[in-house]
Specification:
The protein is mostly helical. It contains 9 helices and no strands. It folds into 2 domains: 106 residues, HD-domain/PDEase-like (Cyclin A, domain 1, Orthogonal Bundle); 89 residues, Methane Monooxygenase Hydroxylase, Chain G, domain 1 (Up-down Bundle). α2 runs antiparallel to α3, α2 crosses α6 and α4 runs antiparallel to α5.
């Protein structure tokens, strides 16, 4: 008999077959590996960490008319169908429900060590070399300019600008990517984030320098 993690991998791969590049199976696989990696140090429940990482983007509300219940419910019914014990199912469901960037501003939201680990792993995939690639992929999809020297990136630090739909992709670094380092929950996550953060700062220096023809 296959173990629940293997079964979940098969299920998620199949479900995300046609997902867009930002949230495809490879995003899940990176988050899964990073979460397991962080958990080596943090010593949370490995099964909960693995299943939550694998199922965290199973039905993105953005592509489901804003429905935030679909993903958690789908995760729950799948895990029940492969006979994972109820306590684990409930924990995984809570993690998925409370993991998004938006929900993380809600101070009353649920938390657990496993939740913090998976959230760190998901955030880490938005920064560093991969994070840069994902941002420009998103910007290209939305037909945005890379950068506009008339708009000072620093002016895009506020949360309201997060909703600005025409901002150059470089602004996304200031409105989100450069803020993630200080939002890390775990020590292991923080350590990885520092390195990826510095890589983005170096990248931005180089970007502005090349913009001026250097
Ligand atoms: P999450 O994976 O946390 O749900 P999103 O769905 O908002 O994040 O974004 C998916 C990827 O697209 C992330 O790497 C994110 O940084 C990137 N992204 C989101 N919004 C923008 C934007 N306005 N400009 C550039 N990249 C973006
Ligand atoms: Ni994700």
């Amino acid at each position: 008999m296959q173990d629940p993690i293997q079964k979940t991998i098969t299920f998620v791969k199949q479900t995300l077959k046609n997902a867009e590049a930002g949230h495809d199976w490879f995003h899940i696989e990176r988050v899964f590996k990073t979460a397991i990696n962080i958990n080596q140090e943090e010593k949370g429940n490995n099964l909960v960490v693995a299943l939550a990482a694998l199922l965290h983007d199973i039905a993105d509300p953005k592509f489901n008319n804003g429905d935030e219940t679909l993903g958690p419910n789908l995760a729950q019914s799948f895990l029940q169908s492969i006979a994972v014990e109820e306590e684990t199912v409930n924990h995984v469901k809570m993690i998925i429900q409370h993991m998004s960037f938006k929900n993380s501003f809600d101070e009353n939201s649920f938390t657990s060590k496993e939740m913090q680990i998976v959230q760190d792993a998901d955030r880490l995939d938005a920064i560093g070399a991969i994070g840069i690639a994902r941002a420009f992929t998103y910007g290209g999809f939305k037909n945005r300019v890379l950068y506009d020297p008339a708009i000072k990136p620093e002016e895009h630090l506020s949360k309201e600008s997060y909703k600005n739909t025409t901002a150059p992709t470089i602004n996304h670094f200031y409105e989100k990517l450069l803020l993630l380092k200080d939002m890390m929950n775990t020590a292991a996550g923080k350590k990885i984030a520092e390195k990826r953060h510095q890589f983005m700062l170096d990248y931005l220096d180089q970007f502005y320098s090349e913009w001026e023809g250097n």
